[in-house]
Amino acid sequence: MKAGAFLYPWDVVGDPDAAARIADLGVRQVTLASAYHSTRALTPRHPAHRIVTAGHAAVLYPPDPDRWAGRSLAPYRQSWTPGGDPYGEAADALAAAGLEVHSWVVLAHSSRLGAEHPDTSVVNAYGDRYPWAPCIARPDVRAYLVDLAAEAAARPGTHGTELESCGWYGFAHLHAHDKVAGVGLGDAAQYLMSLCFCAVCREGYGDAGADPEALSAAVRRSLEPAWSGGGSPESGRAGIAKLLGPTYADATLRWRGRVARTVQEAAVAAVRAAAPPGFQVLLHADPVPYRTGANVGVEPDHVLAVADGVVLPCTGSDAVREAVLGPFAGRGGVRAANFGVVTGMGGSPRTLERDAAHAASLGADQLRLYHAGLASGPDLEAVAAALSRLG
């Protein structure tokens, strides 16, 4: 089973041993960040630093000035990794070590974009803006994300891409010093808190048969017991319909599903147009269509008709893997099982062999390991041992 590991350019740039160390794990592919959100990351083996602070979402290569000239929405350049093209430098080093490089492109997730262009952000039913979550229904946002996907994915020397956040982002977000767990919001309430009420989405709800003012009031009314009672555990489409009513639930799901599908279609088409023949395009995905976040909700039949496959979150119990891999069974395309291998971040590298075998029995045909640059030495030793036995 082909295995690949996620990596940041700053894990490689300035460390002459990094590429060989990754190759020695037994992986064949590296999924290397070319466009990424803000983060604070450990670099436990780098000879020059131990912490990299990426202060805002940015591209890790030189963006094409002609593509972005005169546009209000354009990618931000990074300043925390030396060199004019850290992605290119890292990709060259990894390729020289015999590794196949694929780009890792984060799309609809940028707090700086929302801070500098607040009109681009998701607006909830209370009027609160989510600066980390650009509204993908807005034409200017869609145009920006599609062009970013094409440019960031098809970098020189890159054999494929994995598009993260290629769909709706919403309430759930590991933001700086998050303090949002005081009220237990279940899956359905999280969906209601993720509904966007910008002018474009209001019009979309109207076209779907739901008066936007009445819908907004219904969302607030449905959530009031959660705020006063301390929680709202409902989940699934049935939970959404219970909270919001079947008519409003159906209208929001139809509007948001249509928007997400068309964004995914446009982004993948743009990547294919910019990339050489045979370039692989995968989406980080969740088979529950209304889910938001890094692993965007998709309809399995649709996404496999658009992209070459999916990367699915498989860390956790057998039930977790069954839930995400089951809907893709027998449908073809790449089904890459993504496992956390950083113990301190909830990963389980010491059960990787068993967990990967379970994923394979459910139809997974590739592995992704998150994250080779962040993992400790013992975690990487466990990964290498597991991969050597998996073959």
Please describe what this structure looks like.
The protein has 391 residues and is α/β, with parallel strands linked by helices. The chain has helices spanning 18-23, 65-68, 86-96, 111-116, 139-153, 187-194, 199-207, 212-229, 236-244, 246-274, 300-306, 318-325, 352-361, 377-390, and strands at 2-7, 29-36, 39-42, 51-54, 58-59, 100-106, 121-123, 129-134, 160-164, 184-185, 231-232, 280-286, 296-297, 309-313, 334-340, 366-370. The strands form four sheets. Strands 1-2-6-9-12-14-15-16 form an eight-stranded parallel barrel, surrounded by six helices. It has a two-stranded antiparallel sheet with strand order 3-4. A two-stranded antiparallel sheet has the order 7-8. A hairpin with an 8-residue loop joins strand 3 (39-42) and strand 4. Helix 5 runs parallel beside helix 10 (246-274) and helix 6 (187-194) crosses helix 9 (236-244). The chain starts with a strand and ends with a helix.
Task: Look at the helices and sheets and give the structural class.
Answer: alpha/beta
Number of discrete helical segments: 14
In round numbers, the mean pLDDT is 96
| Proportion of residues in β-strands | 15-25%
Radius of gyration: 21 Å
Order of helices and strands: EHEEEEHHEHEEHEEHHHEHHEEHEHEHEH
Helix content: 25-40%
Report the span from N to C terminus: 7 Å
Tell me the overall shape. globular
User: How is the main sheet built?
Assistant: 8 strands, parallel, barrel
The stretches of 5 or more residues where confidence is low (pLDDT under 50) are: none
The beta-strand count equals: 16
